[in-house]
Write a structure and sequence with these properties.
The protein is α/β, with parallel strands linked by helices. It has 13 helices and 14 strands. α2 runs parallel beside α6. The protein is globular and about 60 Å long. The N and C termini lie far apart (about 55 Å).
Length: about 350
């Protein structure tokens, strides 16, 4: 059976579908329609996958409906290419009529999705979430059950970081003789970034309590570079493959509500993630060993990056003094459970 998975959004979204991929790929030919980095993220862990790269214009945060700017020739080429594949099944967990319309245009015989507005006319199989408001991983599990895939009740997302080895990164890691705390300061959406001064204060407090090597990954636009003096090493402009290997080699990861939080969690590394405009019910890092730092400061939260105010108060008013006690307790618990190698000073 030929199965097409449509996931046109971020790195984290692609990690969520790995339980479905793992089971579906055992006996089926599985294709992914996603952004260019989908191959770099998933292929080392799931080498049997086939990929088609597509930067869907409606996934842009601004100007998404400037139809005259869309690359129509590319869109028609993708439709023609995938229609020729004659897929038996196409799936998308997004309640997005555009995804459902694409599945119909591709000519997939069975089209699975959560209907919204008129999109039900494009779906042959209209699904409902098994527990209402649930994590996106659970949505993929629901799809797996519908297709009769095994292990959907127990399986979780995963990446095998050993398969992403990089000579550049290994040269840095081989010189480190302490537990690695990795700080990734970026996020695809600037509204999801905890202020740099706040990260700085948390690092200062961590230094007084624990002995570790701080690995800093600034955002490609430079956000986080000012923390360089507090870091033991800095890795800039990583490829997706290198990023997976670094995060999977760390003992603890500090980050925002972003793709790296999910990559680290899927590599079975404990994560501390600072949440602002997003909804952790849907998008928290998967797993029981991860810590979400969040407060209901803003009455508009979650606004999903469409902030009505001059700044994201859900993050700028989430102060280090408020969150430090739970961070400290969380790390102490990880040490007691021998999940991380950090030692108290």
């Amino acid at each position: 059976m030929k199965i097409l998975i449509i996931e046109l959004w971020g790195l984290g979204d692609l990690t969520f579908c790995t339980p479905f991929i793992r089971e579906a790929a055992k006996q089926n030919e599985v294709h992914i329609l996603g952004r260019a980095y989908a191959r770099e993220l998933l292929h080392p862990s799931y080498p049997s996958l086939e990929f088609t790269s597509f930067e869907a214009p409606w996934t842009s945060f601004v100007g998404k409906y400037n139809l005259w700017k869309w690359k129509w020739r590319e869109i028609f080429r993708i439709i023609q290419k995938l229609r020729a594949q004659q897929f038996d099944v196409a799936v998308s967990i997004r309640k997005d009529p555009r995804d459902h319309f694409l599945m119909w245009l591709f000519g997939a015989k069975r089209r699975y999705g959560f209907p919204r507005m008129i999109s039900r006319i494009f779906l042959s199989h209209r699904l409902k979430s098994s527990s209402g408001n649930q994590h996106k991983v659970d949505d993929w599990r629901d799809f797996g059950r519908q297709l009769g895939l095994a292990n959907m009740d127990d399986i979780g997302p995963s990446l095998r970081h050993e398969g992403y080895r990089s000579y550049r990164v290994e040269r840095v890691l081989e010189k480190i003789d302490k537990p690695i705390v990795c700080l990734h300061t970026g996020a695809r959406m600037p509204l999801r970034r905890w202020p740099i001064d706040y990260f700085s204060e948390i690092i200062r407090r961590l230094r007084t309590r624990f002995d570790f090597h701080l690995m800093l990954i600034p955002d490609p636009d430079g956000y986080g570079e000012s923390l360089g003096p507090q870091a033991n090493s800095i890795l800039r402009n990583l490829t997706v493959r290198e990023l997976v290997f670094v995060l999977g080699s760390s003992d603890l990861v500090l980050c925002n509500d972003s793709g790296p939080s999910h990559i680290a969690a899927e590599c079975k590394r404990p994560v501390i993630a600072f949440f602002g405009p997003g909804d952790p019910v849907w998008f928290r890092p998967w797993g029981t060993k991860n810590k979400i730092i969040i407060r209901n400061i803003c009455p508009q939260r979650p606004c999903f990056d469409y902030c009505k105010f001059p700044e994201p108060f859900c993050l700028t008013r989430l102060l280090p003094d408020q969150v430090w006690p739970e961070i400290e307790t969380y790390i102490e618990d990880l040490i007691k459970q021998r999940v991380v190698r950090l030692k108290a000073r």
